[in-house]
């Protein structure tokens, strides 16, 4: 079983357990449920840097990245650096994240926040809204076309932006639909963990212009971003490159200064 299949098998059990403990009515009564969301797609369309900076403690490919930081400090540091948005990993088992991380990040910053999660059920979209996210991620590799349609439409009804992630032509072709805001190409092959921005470049021409193009993973240089911009990318999801340092916000600020 590859890592993605393992994560999804665990996620199915986790979501069923959570549903039995926290009812939908409790999520819907969260103070944040009525909050007006902020569009990441709009922020990327109007921003010069397009950086979506991620809070990521550990990962299946790198093991521990940084367990010493406070999520609120990271979030404030990223916002002060002027990033276009933030991504918060909420998976506990494989990434050391939590919904509480999302809540603390939300309490600290105004910028759009992506709930980075392995979404398989509408319940997780209600959680995203209740804990203050503005955007959700859907991963084409683990969803049927009908699920992408149903989940993305439900997210839009909640006022959430949708970032759909693909890794190859087949995933892209089955996924294109009007209920998506952003199409992300993951440079990391989630089966082998190999990273190459060539896949973002190859798929760029097949992404219709109506969607904001986002290149995800394995980005560590300003040159890579300048190159990807020539292929129409407006968003760049960066985790490890900032999180491996003592001060991710400062690293993001220095990175952005070099981009300008
Ligand atoms: O990062 C991993 O090892 C990973 C493994 C399996 C599924 C997802 C994984 N990462 C999630 C992400 O998409 C990245 O955290 C995100 O794109 C940032 O990547 P990076 O800049 O390379 O940290």
Automatic annotation (TrEMBL):
GO molecular function: indole-3-glycerol-phosphate synthase activity
Pathway: Amino-acid biosynthesis; L-tryptophan biosynthesis; L-tryptophan from chorismate: step 4/5
Keyword Endoplasmic reticulum: no
Superkingdom of source: Bacteria
Keyword field: Amino-acid biosynthesis, Aromatic amino acid biosynthesis, Decarboxylase, Lyase, Tryptophan biosynthesis
Catalytic activity: 1-(2-carboxyphenylamino)-1-deoxy-D-ribulose 5-phosphate + H(+) = (1S,2R)-1-C-(indol-3-yl)glycerol 3-phosphate + CO2 + H2O
InterPro entries, sorted: Aldolase_TIM (IPR013785), Indole-3-glycerol_P_synth (IPR045186), Indole-3-glycerol_P_synth_dom (IPR013798), RibuloseP-bd_barrel (IPR011060)
SUPFAM superfamilies attached to this UniProt entry: Ribulose-phoshate binding barrel
Enzyme class: lyase
EC numbers on record: 4.1.1.48
Indole-3-glycerol phosphate synthase domain segment(s): 4-253
Keyword flag Secreted: no
PANTHER family: INDOLE-3-GLYCEROL-PHOSPHATE SYNTHASE, TRYPTOPHAN BIOSYNTHESIS PROTEIN
Family: Belongs to the TrpC family.
Identification of the protein by name: Indole-3-glycerol phosphate synthase
UniProt gene name: trpC
